[in-house]
Each structure stands twice: as C-alpha cells, then as structure tokens.
User: Which sequence fits this backbone?
C-alpha cells in the first residue's frame, strides 16, 4: 500500500504556507492580466493542500503504528547506550591521563565498610549495613579500586556510598570506578555509568531523574535527536535503568540541601543502581539531621594513606631520588604518626608534595623543621600556597593542537595566581565549584550585564539593517535595524546553554516542516509587534506615508521574512546525530558556528527579505524615518519578549552563549581580572593539574585549593 513520503508531506506543507500566500499577496500585481481573474482559485487550492497534508500525516502515523514501532524504538535506545558508553570511556580516560592517575602508578587507597553512624544499621567494619537482610550479601573490605569494583559488582543491589575526609581521593576513585564499570559493560553489558557532579542539583525544585536527564542533554545533546535515538531518549535511558549515575560531591552542594538530597535519593526505586561520594563529616551530619539513609546501599569509607604507600608512590615517580630527600624519608619512617605523616595521609597533599618539590628550586627538608611547621595544618597550608608557584614555574608542554608551534604558553606565576584567584572568588560568590564559561556574565555588575545585552542586540540590529537597506533604503534600513536591536536588547536574557548545529537534511524533512511552521508563528508575533508600534506612531501624530493598507502589507512582509528566517534557524539549531565527549572549547565552538549561521540566515537573511518585500513595487509605500524607528522598536520588543518567555525562540547575538562569553570576557580582561586568551590559559591550567574538567565545565582540582585562593583574594582586597 502506498504511503506518502516525508518529502511529499513537507512539499504539500510548503505549498500551503509559503507558495500560495506569496502568489496571492505578493505576486498579484506581477502576473499577466488574463491570469488575475483566476487568482481566487488559490484559496480553494490552499484548503485542499492543507487537507492532503493532514491525511498524509495521518497515514504516516498509522503506518508506523501498524508495523510495530516499539521494537525500532528499543533498538534506538540500545544504540544510544552503545554510543554513549565509548564516548564516556574516551572522555574519562583522557581526564585520567591528564591527572596522571596511572603514571607511574596510582596511589594505593585503602577502604573499608564504615562502622560509624552513616548507614541504617551499622555493623562491624567490613559488613554491609542495611535494613534489608537480602541486601547484606557481600563484604567490602580491601584496598585499590579494582577490588572495590569487584565487590560492587557482586552486590545484589548495586548502590554504594563512598565517604572520605577532604582530599582523601573520592573523586579520583569515582573516575577509576567509572572507567572500570565501562570496561565491564563492554564485556558483559549492563547500565552505562555516567559520572556527574552534584553541585548543580537542587533537590527542592528538581527530581533527581529530571536533573540527570537535563545533565545528559546538556553534556551530550545528540541524545535529544529523536530521529536517531527515538523520542525522549535521555529520559527513557534513565527511567529504564540503562544509566548508572555516579554522583560525585554531595558535600559540594549547599549544606542546607544535604538532607533534602538524601531524602530525594532514598525516595527513588531502591533497585536503582547508583554511587554517591561525600565527605564523611557532612554525610553523617546530613543523616543525623534528616533521619534518612539510602536504603540497601553499602557505605564504605576511604582510610588515611599510610607512610608505606606514600613512600612507594613517591619512589615510583622518581621524586625522592637525591640527597635532599634523605631527611624527609628518614623522618617519615621514624615518625609515622608525626605532623608530616598526618598531612601526607591525604592523597591530595601527597600529590601536591610531588608537584611542589619536583624541581630543585624548593628543598623538601624544610618540611621537617618543627619551628616552621609545628603541626599538620601548617604543612597543609604551605603545600596549598606553594602549589601554584611550583606548577607555573615548571613549564609543562601542551599538545601541538592546543598551542602555536612556538611552544607552550608561559605565564608569570604571580599573574597566573591573580587570574586564578579571581576565578576562585567568582565561583565562591556563585556558591558553585563549576566554572561555566557561558555563565561568565554573572561576574559582571547588573548594569554591565544589561549593557552587554543591549550592545549585542544593537550589533544584531545593525546587521539586519544592512539587509533592510538593500530594498528600502539606507536611512530606513539603519533606523529600523538599530531601533529593533535596542528594543530586543532591553528585554534580552542570556541563554541557559550553548546552541548546537546540525547541517544534515537527509531524514529530517518532517522536522524541517515543523520548525518552519513554528517560525511562522514567531513571524506573526513580530508582525503584530510592528503593527502595534505603527499604530502608536499614528496616535502620536507621526503619520504613515501610504495609508493603512500599505502599512498592513509592510507588517505582513516583516512577519513573513522573519518567520522564514526563524524557521530555517530552528532547523539548523538541532542536536547532531553522533554522541561526542563535551569540552568547554568544543561546546562554545559549536555555539560560535550557530551564531555565524544565525547572523547570515536569521539576521541578514530576514533583513534582506523584509527589505525586498517592503521595497516591492506593489506596495507603493514610502516609509519615513519615524515610521521605521517605530516599526523596528516594535519588532525588536516582540522578538525579545518571545525570547524571554520561550528561550528557544531567542534571536540575534543575545541568543548566543559564545557572544555573551566573549563580551563578558572582554569586559573582565579590560579590567585585568582575566587574560585576553582565556581559553588558552584554562587549557594550560588543566594540563598543569591546577584545574580539572568535568564535562563542559572546569573545576579547581580540589575545593580546598579554590577556598584557599578565594580567602587569599579576600584578605588582599580587605587590606587594599
């Protein structure tokens, strides 16, 4: 049985909403005189084509239902999980390589099931505590992430809470656990482990499943491509149990949310597998305050690192070779409970020690001086303060693709520390560990943010005005464009997330038709705004040259031109077909591409089309400057308000995360807060181990380093 193709359906749609209106409303004065008496037939043809389009769509839907669409959707969902898994493995393998987690060998971490009041019924160390006796089916006691993974996989209900002191290595172990589970899935199947930072979750306003789905779409937007992975694939991956959330940093959420987070996590299906990391003290406080624990979850705690493990780790890296290390090694062996050994019981401090004293500029023997370093706190503070100067004194090479052939970037330590201190203060003020580059505008004062929005939209309006000028004259084009940009800028809001771009046409024709229909709705809203402004101009006595009928035609031209451009832009701004690992550079690069296409298609293209329609001979209208200003202002306000209430309709540079990032970065660089080549600086800091990358955002390698920098910057600011 014949069923209409997508091309047939979309062709009928285009004839209905574009060709026939253009013929009747625009070309009526251009057709030969013998044809004009028959133009009335266009409207019956429009009605008939609309009916044909509806019938064609109904037959398509019926055909999909009768052939059993459930099985293809299951296959699409399995394809999404299969594509996501190697992407995650590549992403976290690269991060583990940058953090040197396997070079020369990982620091051996010991762990045990906790006997502290962190579980529902704490038993002896090594026993999984649970109110459900069936869940207590394994012993978790050992060292190394391999043994932890094997014990985790033997649990009947794979739910784990991983606790530890600050700097104990919880995030490192979460990365290694994620990589090991990905390797296990490649051989044996199962859910895909996805490592996510909990810092962006507010359990009071968002269900945990909703938050995980949102994070999946933000980090891997291709999952939202319904044509490739099926309808609502991210949500179904989560609710169908195909995702194993590895939730890192419960303690990084505001303290007032810890109890609510535990209650929300305990409220989901207890058979849902998950892993959570948290500082020990914060977790115990949250349990005591909320009276809630994770049902059926095993609770394990990282043990302090012993002197033997520290010495093995430093010796394997070749750090302790040389006479200058002899006093330090002897002191650690003779005083295994002394201040230095206590400080190095934290993997973070051991790692900082390796960096600070890697070169010969610093003498590690100073650490055994009881006068300078009487206790653990003094040693840890010294290592935190000395880390950044040492990291920037040792010039690490960057990959060839990240820097010029002249060599790696070189930053004076004092300047790099100044910039990093501003970033730390910025994150402290936002109460978040995540450096989200497209939210850099939050570091500007309110007036600065408004000025950036207006400037971006004025640039957009000026660009659109060039297109309008091609058909309506330079004075009218520039006046309408700048007025529209100012109006849109007054109500512009930054986008929540960068855009993506998909230039593929094959297999997406029906989507294109839907997007063009939505674009026409927005075009109609724009036309209404423009006509309202024109009416206001009449009331104020400016007058309209050409009469009301001609002004209505101009409004129609504005609506049709902007609608077609918006539809084209929404078709392009859709998820890609292949899942790839996110990074700040790639995410902003995609948005920059979207911005360029938007400038050509949506801004300049709609301006050219509007100018051509306004200047068409059939309008016989001469638009003066006052009318152009009112038309532009009304159109800009209409588009800007549409963007505020439906962010996917935002237009112009104010809809570009890359544009907001660039403008905010320039503002801060002019004031000396950040370097001009910020992305290069952040990439270099990541390579040096100062920052870590989590998806498309950067974080300091540890919260203690961020806090130390923010406190130092606050003291300097107070003294000045």
Assistant:
């Amino acid at each position: 049985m014949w069923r209409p193709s997508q091309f047939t359906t979309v062709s009928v749609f285009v004839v209905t909403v574009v060709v026939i209106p253009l013929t009747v409303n625009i070309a009526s004065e251009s057709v030969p005189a013998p044809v004009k008496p028959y133009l009335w037939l266009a409207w019956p043809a429009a009605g008939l084509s609309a009916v044909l389009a509806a019938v064609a769509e109904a037959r398509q839907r019926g055909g999909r239902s009768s052939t059993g669409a459930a099985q293809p959707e299951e296959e699409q969902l399995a394809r999404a999980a299969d594509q996501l898994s190697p992407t995650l493995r590549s992403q976290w393998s690269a991060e583990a390589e940058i953090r040197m987690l396997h070079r020369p060998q990982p620091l051996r971490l010991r762990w045990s099931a906790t006997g502290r009041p962190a579980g529902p019924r704490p038993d002896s160390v090594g026993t999984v505590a649970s109110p459900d006796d069936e869940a207590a089916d394994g012993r978790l006691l050992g060292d190394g992430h391999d043994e932890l993974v094997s014990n985790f996989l033997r649990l009947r209900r794979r739910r784990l809470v991983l606790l530890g002191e600050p700097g104990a290595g919880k995030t490192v172990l979460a990365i290694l656990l994620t990589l090991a589970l990905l390797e296990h899935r490649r051989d044996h199947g199962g859910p895909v482990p996805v490592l996510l930072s909990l810092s962006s979750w507010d359990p009071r306003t968002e269900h945990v499943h909703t938050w995980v789905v949102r994070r999946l779409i933000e980090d891997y937007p291709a999952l939202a491509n319904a044509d490739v992975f099926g309808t609502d694939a991210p949500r179904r991956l989560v609710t169908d149990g195909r995702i194993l959330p590895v939730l890192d940093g419960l303690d990084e959420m505001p303290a007032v949310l810890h109890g609510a987070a535990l209650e929300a996590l305990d409220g989901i299906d207890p058979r849902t597998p998950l892993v959570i990391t948290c500082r020990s003290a914060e977790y115990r406080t949250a349990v005591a305050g909320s009276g809630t624990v994770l049902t059926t979850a095993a609770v394990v705690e990282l043990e302090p690192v012993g002197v033997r493990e520290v010495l093995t780790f430093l010796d394997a890296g070749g750090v302790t070779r040389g006479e200058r290390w002899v006093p330090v090694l002897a002191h650690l062996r003779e005083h295994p409970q002394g201040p230095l050994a206590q400080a190095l019981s934290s993997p973070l401090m051991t790692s900082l020690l390796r960096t600070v004293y890697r070169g010969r500029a610093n003498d590690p023997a100073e650490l055994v001086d009881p006068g300078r370093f009487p206790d653990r706190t003094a040693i840890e503070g010294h290592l935190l303060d000395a880390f950044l100067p040492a990291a920037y004194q040792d010039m690490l090479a960057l990959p060839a693709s990240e820097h010029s052939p002249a060599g790696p970037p070189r930053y004076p330590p004092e300047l790099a520390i100044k910039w990093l201190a501003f970033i730390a203060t910025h994150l402290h003020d936002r109460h978040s560990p995540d450096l989200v580059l497209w939210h850099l505008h939050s570091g500007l004062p309110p007036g600065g943010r408004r000025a950036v929005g207006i400037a971006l939209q004025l640039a957009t309006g000026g660009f659109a005005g060039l297109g309008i000028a091609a058909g309506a004259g330079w004075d009218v084009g520039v006046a309408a464009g700048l007025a529209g940009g100012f109006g849109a800028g007054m109500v512009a809001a930054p986008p929540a997330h960068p855009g993506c771009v998909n230039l593929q046409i094959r297999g997406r024709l029906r989507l294109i038709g839907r997007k063009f229909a939505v674009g026409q709705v927005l075009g109609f809203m724009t036309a209404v705004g423009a006509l309202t402004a024109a009416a206001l101009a009449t009331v104020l006595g400016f007058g309209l040259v050409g009469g009301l009928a001609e002004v209505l035609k101009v409004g129609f031209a504005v609506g049709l031109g902007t609608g077609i451009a918006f539809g084209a832009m929404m078709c392009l701004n859709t998820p890609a077909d292949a899942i790839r690992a996110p990074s700040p550079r790639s995410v902003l690069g995609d948005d920059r591409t979207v911005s360029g296409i938007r400038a050509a298609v949506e801004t300049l293209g709609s301006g050219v089309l509007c100018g051509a329609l306004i200047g068409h001979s059939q309008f016989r209208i001469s638009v003066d400057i006052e009318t152009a200003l009112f038309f532009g202002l009304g159109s800009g306000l209409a588009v800007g308000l549409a963007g505020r209430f439906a962010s996917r309709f935002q237009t112009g540079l104010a809809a570009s995360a890359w544009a907001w990032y660039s403008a905010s970065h320039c503002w801060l660089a002019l004031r000396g807060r950040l370097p001009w080549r910020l992305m290069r600086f952040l990439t270099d800091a990541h390579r040096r181990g100062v920052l870590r990358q989590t998806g498309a955002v950067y974080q300091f390698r540890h919260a203690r380093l961020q806090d130390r920098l923010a406190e130092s910057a606050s003291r300097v600011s107070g003294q000045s």
